[in-house]
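BUG: 3D viewer hangs when loading the predicted structure for this chain

Environment: internal workstation, default settings.
Expected: structure renders.
Actual: progress bar stalls at 90%.

Input used:
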Amino acid sequence: MLFYATMKLTRKSIPYPEGVPSMIIYDKSGNELQEIQSPTLSEAQLEQARLLNANLKEADLFKANLFRADLNGAVLFRADLEKADLREAMVEGADLRKADLDSAALQGSSFRGSNLKGANLHAAKMTIADFRKTNLQGADLHEAHMDNVRMAEADLFKANLEKAELWGADLISANLSCANLHGANLKGADLRGANLEKADLRYADLQGASMQKANLQGAKLEGAILKGTFMKGADLRGADLFGAIGKFIY
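Structure tokens produced before the viewer hung:
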């Protein structure tokens, strides 16, 4: 596999068994820099690396520096990206099913159209990131920092967004059915046309949120803050609004 970027491993390389091919590193001019035989890329310096369509299945990328890296189409199934730096990285159309992105820095990155089903994004920093049309079914996003994130048409079925920061998030036409949004901050979020059927929105802050024509059938809104929330045309059949705070616009 070729990497077109300067790379430095901060951990001591551990040789592969004899006969296993090594990884050759090149700079941007195509000059060979070094040959590495190691099963880990933990804390690797891969800033602006070109990893288009790379096979990184189950790779150890713990705390790796992937700032502005190109990972479009990459296979990162079950990869360990905990605390990795993926700011402004391009990760579109990639396979990140069950990947571990706990506390990863994803600000300004693009995961558009990627598959993150069952991924761990707990406490990930996702401000202004692009997750449009992304598969996040069953993903763990609790306590994630997602202010102004772009998630239009994303599939968040049964995703855990408990206490997530979603201020000003774009969730137009997103699928949030059966999602856990307990205590989430959705101030000013755009949820027009979103599917929130049977979603848990208890004690969520929806002040000033736009929820026109959203599907809220059977949703739990107990104790939710609905001051100035726009709900014109929303379907609230069977929704539990007991103890909801504020007056919403219907």
